[in-house]
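Q: Sequence in, structure out?
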Amino acid sequence: MIEKESTGPGVENIEGVTRYYSKKESRIGYSLLLRGTKHFGFYSQGDKAWAFGSAMRRMEDKLAETLRLPRGSTVLDAGCGVGDVATHLASMHGLRVTGIDILDFNLSEAEKRATAKGLSGSVDFRRMSFSSLDFPDDHFDGIYTMETLVHAMDAERVLREFYRVLKPGGKIVLFEYSRDPDALLPSRAARVLLDINTRAAMPSFNRFEHGVLDKLLSTVGFSDIEVQDISTHMWPMLRAFMIVAFVPYWAFRLTGRLNRYVNVESAVESWRYRRNWRYNVYRAEK
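A: Exactly. Output:
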C-alpha cells in the first residue's frame, strides 16, 4: 500500500525533479523505451543492445549481488520510481523492500505493478523525500539508490539520513555517476554537461567529480567503501539511446528548439563525452 508521508524540510529540489519527470518528453520517452523504469542496463559480451528489459534486470541482479544480504532482509529503495527494481529484488532475491519517491504518479504505478505480480506483502511504497526520512534509527538491513542521489540538492544530508536509518553492520549500495573535474573537461563538454544537469534537476552530478562521493560516504561515517566503474557495461544502452535521439537532436538543434528536449540532448552529448564521466557502483557498511 502507498502511505502518504510528509516530505519534511530540506527538499529544495522537489520542484525541479517533479518538473523534469513530469515533462511529456520524459514520461513518453521512459515509457516507450524502458516501460517507465529509469535506470541503465548491464551488458556483457554477446548481449543484445536493444534488449533493454533483460539488461535492466541484469543491472538489478548486479545490485542484489553487491548488497549481499540474506533473504528476508529489509531494504530501502530511495527513489523507487515505478517499482520495478523493488519488485525484482523481492521476487528474485527474497528481499523485503520499502520504496520511497516524491512523485505520486510513480507511486501509483509502482503499487499497480506490485499488486499485479502478487508482491504486495513483500514491497510497500511511500511518498517521502530521502533528505528527511520518516523511519526510526537502525531500521533497515540495506539501502540503495539507482541513479537518484544525483538529484539531491544536499547529498551530505541524504547520506546522513541513510546512515541514521541503517542498522549497524548494514549495507548501502549506490549506482551513481561521477565526472572528470572541470579542469580536465573540454570547455564545450563542461558547458554542455552543466546545462544538462541543471535542466534534468541533477545538482549533485555537478558536484560528483571522481572520488567526491567516496569521500562523502567516509565523512558521514560509512566504512569498507568499495567503488567499481562499470561504465563499459552500460555503454551499449547509452549508444542505443544516442541512435534513437540522433535525428531529433539535429532537427531540434537546427530549428533552435533543442533546449526544450533535455533527454534528446543528453543521449547524444552523454555518448559524445562518455569518456569524461563514469557509471559507478559504490558499496559501504555502517
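Residues 250 and 273 are 17 Å apart (CA to CA).
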